[in-house]
Design goal:
single chain, 215 residues, mainly alpha, 9 helices
Length: 215
């Protein structure tokens, strides 16, 4: 018996294989093409949606800069409604909260930011949202709720936002008359590199308050 087939035998074997398997081979090729086509279509659609969201966001920035409140509201709502799960939707919600603060609707801004904080998974954005929410809570006179939001955060989880959190804690401590804790928080923020005149003014004000004689 010969180990290698002759050329004629090879051709016959190939014809036999094609006859037996051509249907499944055609189906396999068709499925492969369909999958590839579907993937390409999905990628194209994804790219188009990103481009649309980017254009909307740029228009939103222009509207906010021009103080066109109603168009800004509409554009931010479109980002939130049509691009859920993207950073553009997060940007849209942040702008909605900003516009509500500027309109004096602090309660509405609080709700928008609280919902966004619960929905967002990105850690960096969570810090931005949490900081803005804490500021709104302080503006509403809800200092204890603000402290409940930021006090439990472990230092190794706050990263570059640590000094901002310390200033916020200081502000909340002042609001609940915990002056010593406020001073420690402000001084900690200063040690972390916050050299802003505003922070120094807060420390100076604490010193003045402590020096005032009790009447």
């Amino acid at each position: 018996m010969e180990v290698y087939l002759s050329e004629e035998e090879r051709v016959d074997a190939l014809k036999k294989w094609v006859k037996e398997n051509y249907r499944s081979a055609i189906v396999g090729v068709a499925l492969g093409l369909a999958v590839m086509g579907g993937w390409n279509a999905w990628q194209t659609n994804k790219r188009h949606k990103a481009e649309e969201a980017s254009a909307l966001y740029q228009n939103l920035l222009k509207a906010v800069e021009a103080k066109q409140t109603d168009p800004a509201k509409q554009l931010s709502q479109r980002l939130v409604d049509n691009y859920q799960g993207t950073l553009y939707a997060t940007y849209g919600a942040l702008f909605q909260a900003k516009l509500k603060v500027e309109a004096g609707d602090l309660a509405g801004a609080k709700q928008t930011l609280a919902d966004l904080l619960n929905a967002t998974k990105d850690d960096a954005f969570k810090h931005v949202i949490r900081i803005r929410l804490a500021n709104v809570l302080l503006a509403l006179g809800e200092a204890k709720e603000a402290l409940g939001l930021i006090e439990p955060l472990p230092r190794d989880k706050v990263g570059e936002f640590e000094s901002v959190y310390e200033v916020l804690k200081g502000d909340a401590y002042v609001a609940v008359d915990r002056v010593d804790d406020a001073r420690k928080a402000y001084e900690k923020a200063k040690q972390l590199g916050d050299a802003s005149p505003g922070l120094q003014l807060k420390l100076d004000n604490l010193a003045v308050d402590v020096a005032k004689p009790v009447s």
